[in-house]
Amino acid sequence: MVDGESVTVKFITMSCVHKQLYQVYVPHEGKEVRFHIQKNAAGEFKIVGKGVCPDRYVPLEEAFAEAIIASPQG
Question: pLDDT tens digit string along 42-69?
C-alpha cells in the first residue's frame, strides 16, 4: 500500500548467486519507473540514487529490504 493505494512492485535480481543488487519497478504517474536497491558494506539493502526513486516510495526502503530478505534465492 502506497498513499492508500495498492500497488504492484517488481523486484528483478541482478545476481542469481547472491542477494545483492535489484532493479525495482514501480508505477508512477501512469508509467513504470525503475530504481535500484543494493546491499551496502554493512549488509543493509538501501535504495541507490534516491533522486531516481519517486518520493512516495522512499519511505518504503525498509519494507523493500524485508521483502528481498524474505524472498527465496535465485
Answer: 999 999 988 999 999 999 999 999 999 9
